[in-house]
């Protein structure tokens, strides 16, 4: 009777698939390491970055009555960097999946600030390279409306950055996807209609990175060629501009390259199904790590100002000692003609009129 007895195992006991303890252990270790290194990295970045950018803004506030075009440029960089640094603690808290401090609307706002920092940062670098190159030519040395042109360029930069951010905002499926470090390949393409996530990614890579980088390469190559025949004093702004461009590209190039690979995997998911299934976790981790590396640029920029700008160091030390600050001197000297003399901006007719008035 025992020989003919059949025992039926049902429920969770009727499992034919073996339990992979190594997979669970790997996920737990990955989650644990992520929960440790992300808050640690962001804590250092927030402390150093807020201190450095805060000092930059303090120096600019002391010089508010005599701001130049270059001062306004560094002010905008400092503002977007401070906004990004304020969101990093919430991003670190969101990295811990058990943390429920961040509401969905707040997560979307943090993601929008992350995008605006990238766009405004690279577009401002493009503008300052173009401004320096044009100001070194004979045609634009006595250009009278440099302030007006810069103001229009800044309005265009912020308008384009906000439009690109809004397009990315509307293409998101969930609020958590708005946070930096989210891989597009983790989602499935829509069955019908326009794939707005792919459109947003294409605009980010094309308009927000590839096109500005090409302009930066062309402008920087011309600036370096012209710099060889200049004096040591005129080479200082070139060193600062090249350093800003180099730091930005070193920090954000890995992120954008990873986004490009992620986009290829997203569009070729059916063709590369075997490769995609084997490397999806590595690709998601790469996007998250490179986005964290990109945020380091907000911390490094004040250090570049301190080591490369002699006037900035002088004003900063005077501010820390509570001494009198010289308001008329330029802190950065980015342009060949930082502040064009008034008589250079007058036409021949105005000069003749002034001469006649002086004779009378």
Automatic annotation (TrEMBL):
Claim: 4Fe-4S is one of the keywords in the record: no
Signal peptide: none
Localization per record: Membrane
GO BP term, example: calcium-mediated signaling
A GO term for molecular function: C-C chemokine binding
Family annotation (InterPro entries): CCR1-9-like, GPCR_Rhodpsn, GPCR_Rhodpsn_7TM
Transmembrane stretches, start-end: 40-61, 73-94, 106-128, 149-167, 202-225, 237-255
Boundaries of every G-protein coupled receptors family 1 profile domain copy: 52-305
Species of provenance: Fundulus heteroclitus
Key words of the record: G-protein coupled receptor, Membrane, Receptor, Transducer, Transmembrane, Transmembrane helix
UniProt-recorded name of the protein: C-C chemokine receptor type 4
Main location: membrane
Any one of the GO CC terms: external side of plasma membrane
Coiled coil spans: none
